[in-house]
Backbone:
């Protein structure tokens, strides 16, 4: 069946089988390689994408469910050059192998859109579902924190409960 | 990895059409909401349905509102929506406390509370909280509409009393009419996302009514009847707490599995009950740890 989605700002049509997983369709049929195939169980966060502005696990979504939805990946957020968040990641050497980087980037992007000036704890909570096996999280959290402090004027984050 | 088993994908726009499809396929259909459980089971070929009925286009299942003294949670309400709802945070803060401990954000943005109880794994986080408030599960088929008390809902691990041709349209629960406080304590192997090794939910009100519910320490979430009977009508004190902890360890049936041993679950359930009771009593007095604070 044919589905169409708003992918990184462009309307894309694609032919899918109901059994196809969104992650596979993005990578194999639509040429979007930033979401990675990790655990395929929703645990590792490597396949994270933004769907209608919210992070979701593309390994746990059928491609047909994306019909009519808005999808953003790292390819989309970096279209006008690197964002301040991505620059901070580079400055902090946040990643080594890079496998978790797209998921981390999108989770942090969603966090900063929701809470422009998060605490360290809020950053850790937002990234808790993205596993990194290289750099031990500290340079990742530090980069998000630094990027958030350059985020225009200061507002308080929404309390957790 | 694609799913191997072929199925028909349906995305009905109305509840009527969804019920018609369910009536046609019966037990060979699976209902899809957030998919965080279902898609994994399809991938692993544990489930091989003829039809997958995606209910996300059915707007009436999306409601999350407080009306006539009751919280109404639609079948499509996600844990993120519960966590972010001002109404939930104000009137049922323990629901937000629980929602915040469910997996990680990328899962909470998609997973629904209705799906959580339909999966009915013994460690489901919603179960103990819904037991505290005597929640009702609203189920509908083409022939029938019924409200199932949560205490009768779970039939065993991954089993509920929902019939083949029924769909869960939502949940409801009344507001507790006496000033009260509650607490949800969840034991996990690490911060971030993990299933509960054990969980304890506690509610206490100004009239010294107590509600206790456990998760992950039996084949299904269940109320702590013995501990409730011990405590009800009495203000909490150290001697009572000690007795409650002993009694809790007798009324649970933990097993050893990949996430924990029976002994550890048993010991920690006592610890969590004690901390949960102290926190709930303290919250009731206007002090105590903020909702969402980790007690373990």
Residues:
């Amino acid at each position: 069946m044919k589905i169409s989605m708003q992918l990184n700002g462009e309307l894309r049509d694609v032919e899918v089988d109901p059994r196809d997983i969104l992650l596979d369709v993005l990578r194999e049929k639509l040429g979007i390689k930033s979401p990675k195939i990790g655990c395929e169980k929703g645990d590792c966060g490597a396949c994270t994408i933004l769907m209608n502005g919210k992070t979701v696990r593309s390994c746990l979504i059928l491609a047909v469910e994306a019909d009519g939805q808005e999808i953003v990946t790292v390819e989309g957020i970096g279209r006008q050059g690197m964002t301040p968040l991505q620059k901070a990641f580079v400055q902090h050497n946040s990643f080594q192998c890079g496998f978790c980087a797209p998921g981390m980037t999108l989770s942090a992007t969603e966090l900063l859109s929701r809470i422009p000036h998060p605490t360290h704890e809020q950053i850790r909570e937002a990234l808790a579902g993205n596993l990194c096996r290289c750099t031990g999280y500290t340079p990742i959290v530090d980069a998000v924190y630094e990027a958030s402090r350059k985020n225009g004027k200061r507002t308080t984050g929404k309390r957790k409960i | 990895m694609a799913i191997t088993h072929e199925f028909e994908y349906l995305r009905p726009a109305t509840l009527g059409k969804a019920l018609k499809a369910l009536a046609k396929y019966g037990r060979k259909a699976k209902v899809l909401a957030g998919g965080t459980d279902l898609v994994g089971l399809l991938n692993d070929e544990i489930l091989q349905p003829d039809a997958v009925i995606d209910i996300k286009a059915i707007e009436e299942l999306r409601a999350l509102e407080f009306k006539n003294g009751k919280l109404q949670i639609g079948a499509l309400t996600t844990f993120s929506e519960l966590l972010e709802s001002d109404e939930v945070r104000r009137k049922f803060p323990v629901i937000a406390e629980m929602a915040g401990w469910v997996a990680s954000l990328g899962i909470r943005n998609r997973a629904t509370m209705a799906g959580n109880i339909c999966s009915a794994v013994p460690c489901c986080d919603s179960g103990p909280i819904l037991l505290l408030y005597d929640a009702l599960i609203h189920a509908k088929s083409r022939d029938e509409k019924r409200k199932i008390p949560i205490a009768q809902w779970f039939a065993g691990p991954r089993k509920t009393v929902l019939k083949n041709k029924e769909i869960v349209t939502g949940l409801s629960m009344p507001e507790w009419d006496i000033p009260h406080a509650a607490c949800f304590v969840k034991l996990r192997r690490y911060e971030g996302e993990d299933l509960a090794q054990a969980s304890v939910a506690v509610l206490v009100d100004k009239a010294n009514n107590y509600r206790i519910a456990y998760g992950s320490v039996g084949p299904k979430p269940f109320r702590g009847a013995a501990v409730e009977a011990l405590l009800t009508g009495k203000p909490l004190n150290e001697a009572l707490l000690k007795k409650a902890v002993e009694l809790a360890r007798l009324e649970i049936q933990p097993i050893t599995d990949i996430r924990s041993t029976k002994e550890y679950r048993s010991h920690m359930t006592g610890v969590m009950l004690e901390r949960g009771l102290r926190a709930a009593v303290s919250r009731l007095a206007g002090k105590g740890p903020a909702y969402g604070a980790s007690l373990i």
Chain B touches chain A at residues 1-9, 11, 32, 35-36, 39-40, 42-43, 52, 54, 56, 80, 83, 89, 93, 96-97, 100, 103-107, 109-110, 191-193, 290-292 (CB under 8 Å). Chain B is about 35% helix and 25% strand. Chain B has a mean pLDDT of 96. Residues 132 and 211 of chain B are 6 Å apart (CA to CA).
